[in-house]
């Protein structure tokens, strides 16, 4: 004899799986040519030139501080990202790249490499390249 409660599990699975969204990630590629530091309200990391690092749920902060070349750059990430490749975004999240002038490009969600990119992997979206809202230098 089957229990009626067990029959309900397959019906509830889609609700249970979508009730908690997957963790939000952001992957930062450093294309500045020098080491940079990235700070959010919750995290701090140094990224070597031509490398990347990943943050967990940083867009809840919406404010990033990038430090490099003797200057500190403040960015407002409340900018709308638009459509993004959600299949890859589950693995690496939203991917951005800090350029030599400290502008920030949005990278394709399909990019799976480990170094900064150029060309068609850089997405053309409104608000990008993102410019700092302030810059303080020593």
The percentage of residues in β strands lies in: 25-35%
Total helical segments:
2
Largest sheet: 5 strands, mixed
Structural class: alpha+beta
Spatial strand order of the main sheet: 4-1-7-8-9
Distance between the termini: 76 Å
Task: Tell how many strands the DSSP assignment holds.
Answer: 10
Gyration radius from CA atoms, angstroms: 19 Å
- Measured as a percent range, the helix fraction is 10-25%
Instruction: Point out poorly predicted stretches.
Output: 1-23
The domain count comes to 1
Quick check: average pLDDT?
78
N to C succession of SSEs: HEEEEEEHEEEE
Shape: globular
Description:
- The chain is 17% helix and 33% strand.
- With 138 residues, the chain is an alpha+beta fold.
- The protein has one domain.
- The strands form two sheets. It has a five-stranded mixed β-sheet, covered by helices on one side. It has a five-stranded antiparallel β-sheet with strand order 3-2-5-6-10, with no helix packed on it.
- Strand 2 and strand 3 (44-47) form a beta hairpin.
- The longest helix has 16 residues, at 4-19.
- It is globular, with a radius of gyration of 19 Å.
- The relative contact order is 0.19.
- Residues 1-23 have low confidence and may be disordered.
């Amino acid at each position: 004899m089957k229990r009626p409660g067990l029959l309900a599990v397959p019906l509830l699975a889609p609700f249970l799986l979508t009730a908690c969204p997957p963790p939000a990630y952001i992957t930062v590629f450093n294309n500045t040519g020098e080491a940079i530091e990235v700070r959010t309200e919750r995290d701090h990391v140094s990224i070597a030139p031509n490398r990347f690092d990943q943050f967990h749920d940083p867009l809840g902060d919406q404010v990033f501080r990038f430090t490099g070349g003797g200057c500190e750059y403040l960015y407002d990430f409340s900018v709308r990202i638009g459509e993004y490749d959600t299949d890859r975004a589950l693995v690496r999240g939203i991917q951005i790249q800090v350029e030599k002038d400290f502008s920030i490009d949005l990278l394709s969600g399909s990019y799976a490499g480990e170094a900064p990119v150029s060309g068609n992997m850089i997405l053309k979206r409104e608000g990008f390249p993102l410019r700092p809202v302030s810059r303080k230098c020593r």
